[in-house]
Amino acid sequence: MNLSNKALRTALRAIHLVIGALVIGYMYTPLGDVEWFGSLVRISIPILTITGVSMWQMPSITKILKRQPVLRQS
After folding, report:
1. How far is 25 from 40, CA to CA, in rounded Å?
2. What would the pLDDT profile of 6-30 be if each residue is shown by its tens digit?
3. Where are the domains of the chain?
4. Residues 33, 28, 46, 38: what is their CA dihedral angle, to the nearest 10 degrees?
């Protein structure tokens, strides 16, 4: 599966916004008292962090992934 850069950014942004909305809902609505919703938010915090950092550092990440390994001659 080969995504274009724009499609990848759009997908990461959508995931980030949905999970961010869950966190805001947890903090500012009565749903924060519901046990399963709290567990869902605690599980989704690492995903929120990963999507945010990956959008922020996308040029560096793609540069590292595009490097070709150096083959050593024996």
Report:
1. 12
2. 898 999 999 999 999 999 999 998 8
3. 5-57
4. 10
Residues 58-67 pLDDT 10s: 888 888 888 8
Helix, strand, coil shares of the chain, percent, nearest 5, are 80, 0, 20
Spell 22-57 as b/e; 16+ CB within 10 A means b. Answer: beeebeeeeeeeeeebeeebeebeeebeebeeeeee
Spatial CB neighbours of 54, under 8 Å, sequence gap ≥ 6: 12, 61
d(CA 34, CA 64): 42
pLDDT average, residue stretch 33-44: 91
